[in-house]
Amino acid sequence: MGNFLPGDPAGIDAVAAALDSESPGLDTVEGELLVITLPSWTATGSDLARNTIHHWAAGMTGAASSYGSCAVALSAFAASLRAGNARVAAAEAVVQSCLPIVTPADAIAYARAVAELRQTEDEVTTQYWIDVTTCAEAIIGATTGASGHGGGGPYANDTLTSVDGQGLLDDLVSLNGQVDLSDAALNPDLVAQGNAGDCWFLSSLMSLASTAWGRDAIRAGLRWDSDKGGYWVRLYKDGKPHEYFVNAIYADGAGSGDNLSWPHEASWVSIYEAAMVQAQGKGDDTKGGFGADGFEAITGQKAVHAGADPATLRKALQDGAYATAGSDKKTWIFGHDAGTVNAQVQDASGAWHTESVDLVDGHEYDVVRVDGSNNVYLRNPWGESNSSDGGGIIRLTAEQFKDNFDETSYFKPSK
User: Fold this and answer.
1) Which residue blocks in 98-243 are alpha helix, DSSP H?
2) What is the pLDDT of residue 22?
3) Is the pLDDT confidence value at 284 over 70?
4) C-alpha distances out from residue 93 to 2, 9, 118, Å
5) Using 50, 70 and 90 to split pLDDT, how confident is the model at 307?
6) Mean pLDDT on 24-47
């Protein structure tokens, strides 16, 4: 039999190898040009020439990084194809070993083997589409700078630029003393995304803020400096802690509070957001990501990025995990977006009613819980009174969730 999954692992590996082989040469282009063209030039114009080469070569260095990242993504996809095909081939071999069927026991063994084969095929197919998406997103991210879920909030405007032309996040507002870090203030229902595309980060903060352990973790990352009039915010990269000083927040960024309006005053959410912008080294907006990235940045512990299966999600939450979920953004692969659904929405009084909800495309949501029927309860980082769902808890059926979401992130603390 041929391979179960479409795709040629050897051919994909060959493309990855070709990209990888080109990367080192591009990465060293600046030094080589300087050696060849400007070995000892010190006359008028030499600094301008060196700067010109430096800025041009910076683009080539970026291309080298992109080539390398694409090679890694393709190699991982090829390995996944091989692993999936091997699983199906092993299950098929078990089925063949049950033939010929001579006795009733043989028939029972054959039926079980066929059932195992079908289950394996389903699991491998599901993982295949996850891997296709992951690989494609990695390549897009490497070549365009975009990855993960990172659409702007409900107040984002594609044409908005700050006074210095840098992007969506505009004016800064200086801190005026310490912010409220009480349990009442650390209420995930009060969080509202602003202009930054950081739903992945806010959803992980919201998830953590839903429990006492998570609120303590959030507080532990904030250290007030009375001499400097700001907060040192601890965030992790590759499991290692780094501190970022924040004495001002983005007036049109994320906030927290009742009836929040823009611009707004500082809160624990806006302070964390300002630190994350520093951590990512980008002065106008936050780069896209997934909930797993947010959990790891805040806690320093490993999180899992997985597919969108409600039963698996329910088990993870029952085991003490925190979770987020990302809505479908695979139009260019599958031909559909996250869309409008008739969902159950909980209002401020706690009552449930049916509403037409516009699920935001390519957006990360906080997962509140999953019930025994695998209905998934979500909270939108856009906050109260937003145009998508009004800001209440959204309850989707298992089918609605699977039809409109393509990834989840789990984080279980190692206490």
Assistant:
1) 104-144, 199-208, 212-220
2) 64
3) no
4) 13, 21, 13
5) confident
6) 46
Note whether 120 and 87 are within 8 A (CB).
yes
Q: Residue 253 is which amino acid? A: G
Considering the entire predicted model, what is its pTM? 0.64
How far from 134 is each of 37, 88, 141, 148, 157, CA to CA, in Å?
42, 21, 10, 9, 28
Residue 37's Cβ-count burial label (10 Å; 0-12, 13-18, 19+) is: exposed
Is 90 exceeded by the pLDDT of residue 192? Answer: yes
Q: In the structure encoding, which two tokens stand for residue 60, read together?
A: 């080539």
Contacts of 75 (CB under 8 A, 6+ apart): 12, 13, 16
C-alpha span between 332 and 104 (Å, rounded) = 49
Is 312 exposed, middle or buried, given 0-12, 13-18 or 19+ CB atoms closer than 10 A?
Answer: middle
Q: Where are the domains of the chain?
A: 9-144, 172-299, 306-411
| Residue 275: DSSP 8-state | H
DSSP, residue by residue, 68-111: HHHHHHHHHHHHHHHHHHHHHHHHHHHHHHT-S--SHHHHHHHH
- pLDDT (tens digit per residue) in 97-144: 999 999 999 999 999 999 999 999 988 887 887 777 667 666 655 555
Output the furthest CA–CA distance in the chain (Å, rounded): 94
> DSSP character for 190?
G
Residue 161 dihedral angles phi and psi, to the nearest 5°: -130, 150
The β-bridge relationship of strands 172-174 and 248-250 is antiparallel
Most confident range, picked from 147-156, 283-292, 302-311:
302-311
**Cβ atoms of 85 and 30 closer than 8 Å:** no
By residue count, the chain amounts to: 415
Burial 287-304 (b: 16+ CB within 10 A, else e): bbbbbbbbbbbbbbeebe
Mean pLDDT for the stretch of residues 196-218: 96
3-state secondary structure 99-116: CCCCCHHHHHHHHHHHHH
Average model confidence (pLDDT) across the chain: 80
**CA atoms of 249 and 256, how far apart (whole Å):** 12
